[in-house]
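Hi L.,

As promised, DUF2388 domain-containing protein:
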Amino acid sequence: MPRLRLLCALALFFVAPAMAGSFAGTSAGASSAGSSASSGSTSGSDKVVLQARDDAAGFVASDGQIRGAMLEAALRHLREVDPRAREASDMALARAILAQ
């Protein structure tokens, strides 16, 4: 398990900054779509995506080999609330989750 954390940390250090600019629109749009659909308090959308960060890190670090349940829920949710997310790959969305 410590090895996975190290891989995740390295992936975040090298990959997230480079990808943040490219996918910021997707992740920001998904967040704003989710929060505008709520009553103004912290929405379930934000929680689903934030709770998937660890799974997203494992997914990115393993080059898509590790797929956690929280990540699957977040991917499904993002694609339901944001049309741009429907066109994005799982890897692109996982990186966008990490960039948030």
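Confidence is low (pLDDT under 50) at residues 6-42.

Thanks again for sending the construct details.

K.
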